[in-house]
Amino acid sequence: MTGKNEFLTIAPSSSNYSSNKDLLSQVKSIQRLRKPIKIGFFFTDATFHDLQQLFEWSWTYRIINILAATYESYPTETSSDGRLSIFTYNPFGKFKVVNVTSQSFDLFFISQKSNLQQHPLQLTNKFDTDKTRNTWMAVFQVMNCSWKLLTQSASKNSITPFDVRTTLLSIFQFETNLLYPMHSLLFSILTPEALPYSEFTSYLRNILSNEFFVYTSVTIISVIVLLVIARYKNQRKIQFFACATDVFNLLMNDNSAMKYNRLSLVEVFLIVPLTFVGLVIINGIFSNLQSHITKPFQQPQIKTLEDIYRSPLPVITFAIQYKTSLVNVLEARTKYNWTDKVIMIPSLSLEERRTSFDRSAMYLTKDEIVTSLLEVQKNLQIPGFYKAEKGVFRAIGGHVMHEEFQFAERVNEIFHWIHSAGLYDLWLRQENDQRVKSFLEFNIERMKNETFHNAGIGTVSMPTFIAYGWCASIILFIVELIWFNISRQNRINFIITKLRNNEIKVRT
Question: Taking a C-beta distance cutoff of 8 angstroms, is the pair 341, 316 a contact?
Fold first, then answer.
């Protein structure tokens, strides 16, 4: 039982299948303890029906390394040549008992490298990616088998023993030793990328949208209107620009040119609300402007585990094994409790949020997906993610196979061929290229459909704002020149008219 080629010899007193049921139960128990063991039944005589039942029982309980020997020819009703014959069975295609006495010793047992003769292997999971499908199609081609998808659940309780013999689970997960590991998975944490501080137009937009600004604007306009009316009653002239200039001088606290002894009672009264508006509102706006201009260009970036933990954003994953591994790693590297910080959501929801660059959370993500997302956001020039914690943990990924699957060694060998030939890496690169393409198409379509993108609200950089200020200054300067010339001409006309009146009086 401890050798390299373990062999169990069984010599029942009778070949009758019904009378050997207890013995077969013992054989099954031994085979479950020592699965690689080879089993040989030796009969003094045996009928075809007895051998058929024995081998059907073997295939039902997933015993393939079995033979039966009898000192009879192939048991039929008409022939017997009295020689030693060895039998095994072929379950693929139509189940049949095979006499291998005159053939190679390799055929005494069903090889795990056998030609499956298009016998279907059963899968409980669909091919979720192209590389997974390509991998399994290569396996099926080499093993010369077909495949079909089971409708039952992947749990062992829902699969009958007969199905288990050729049932693959084909679930890709990490930390499994059931099949040859196909991929070294490196996981990183994606955090929202730090954005520049808001542009000056955004700053102005925030000020203009303030409710207090509305009250201030109403106060300033009301004061100008009242001042124009008061001066019109005294001087019978509309002095709108002069009144507006005086009001804004007061707002800027520049009242040195004002002669209070020449002000009317209405004008003196209006100084009170203007002084309040000037001191509180205008100085507040200028102080905010100064603080805005002197801010650092870039907002703080979430980089370290300390930053991630102190951020109000959660770390999202979609599988319990990912959460458990991440929490264990983070708690081992920090002094914090990460159980509540790491949350799980459904896989489709996570994919949708990550693909649309939802920056309201942080995400545990495989490195190949991280690379695709960073490339997409760079091409589209959109706010996206930052690879904060690189390689937070690593795991070996591969496909899970049912523990009772008969041909695990053959599949492992084919997987090794695929990986060593570089085919898996090729399919992985093709999948990454396709992922980048789909991410680009999805986000381009998303940006076209989003309302805020079509609202025409852009950002204006500080140099553009300065250019606007120069243009406004030039326009005001031209208006001031025109107004000065008009005023000067009016004064000249007034003086000429007055001189003429005096001359008429003198002549009179």
Answer: no
